[in-house]
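Posting this for the archive.
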Amino acid sequence: MRMSLPSGRDPVKQSERDAGFSRPLRSLMTRGGTLTRVRLLLIEDDARLAERTAEYLRDHDAEVDIVGDGVEGLSRATRGEHDLVLLDIMLPGLDGLEVCRPQRQTAPGPGF
């Protein structure tokens, strides 16, 4: 995903470029004026897919926590410890839609 401004200026700050953050994750990394890594919760029951996805995201400077079922995923997602949740639809326990619905009602926004 590439973001551009109408003026053609690059929205990424020089300090972020200097820090070596990867482009897809940069826009989510400023908290209180301080650059931090994106914290992702990956809810995926396929262990191999989860590990490969997490490896890719970690290679791009993200912190990734993996949960393998919907019940634990909902519990972890409601704690507010993550910037973004990546969610499978077909999960044991609760399916992805059942995990997502209460989150979207209480905290609608781009992170879920």
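Confidence is low (pLDDT under 50) at residues 1-12, 15-22. DSSP finds five helices and five strands in the chain.
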